[in-house]
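Re: Re: ligand-bound prediction request (bumping)

Still looking for help on this. To restate: I need the protein modeled with glycine bound, output as structure tokens. Inputs repeated here so nobody has to scroll up.
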Amino acid sequence: MNIININTRESYDCIVGEGLISLVPSLINDLTINSNIALITDDIVDKLYADSLFNDLKKNRKLKTIKLVIKSGEKSKNKETLFNILEFLGDNNFNRSDYLISLGGGVVGDIVGLSSALYMRGINYIQIPTTLLSMVDSAIGGKTGIDLKSGKNLVGAFKEPKMVICDINIIKDLPSSIFKEGMAEVIKCDIIGNLGIKNNILNNEIKDNIESIINKCLYLKKDIVEKDEFETNGLRKVLNLGHTIAHSIEAISNYSISHGNAVGMGLLIESKISYELGIINKETLDEIINILKISNLIFDLKYDIDELISFMKNDKKNNDELISFILIESFGNIKEIKLNEKELKNILNKIMK
Ligand code: GLY
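Reply:
Sorry for the wait, this slipped through. Here it is.
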């Protein structure tokens, strides 16, 4: 078991290891001994893991343990689900000393995190991510949120969890379509931090090394969020690599394209933009395309460029007429570039034809 302390404004542990789901009651005991617990999950994870966790949590606890199941998928990350959770807490007389536990992927984690930021102006929560994507990215760092029709994650708050528990065995059992979505965020981390994961991908040894890969991504994210928790000094922005395009793809598809798949395509298109601007060399571009291909993250994308750009303008990463991109010089060297609409349109016309 590896314990990574995330030393942000409120420091907390991210625990990584095999079979941790059955240890949750003891891992969280000190935090929650005098608290009611609301376990919140989605309908898919409920059948797989929530029932037994819920029963384990109820054992030996005098205080209330309740469960709420939301519908799985990005389309649930909206105000209706948020208010269902908040009303559920209110109906059950939860107060600030109680705990929410998020059991699920990024959607559940983000919406439970936001509920915990809002309910009574702040209640505690614990993240138990059940996808590779949420383990390496969304479960730590305190970004929470829901989507609006006009764009992804446009309503949110920074709210760090009190603990994050990553059970590697859950990742080993993921269907390949969900696993590969997490690989998009893993590849993003590898490009940002030059973590050497590309060699694991090229040598087809991802699954054998998944625990160390997850740990590498978590240490990278720890390092970044500790230096720029609230995305104010520019450092944390690098984690948005691939995401300017990805968020537009998700919104334009009305969230029928998943976040991971959109990030994969975002990495591809943003690498190509880097090449068009002469920032990245051909060899590195080809290397990135190759690892995205091996990871099954490249697919046909036929979207109207004007529509893509119109969603990019709504993205919260932009604060003037220019659209911000995190672009790639090489593995380990990333920089922000701002493009005006005309420049961007010309480049996208070239690379998306
Ligand atoms: N997912 C990007 C961040 O946490 O900043």
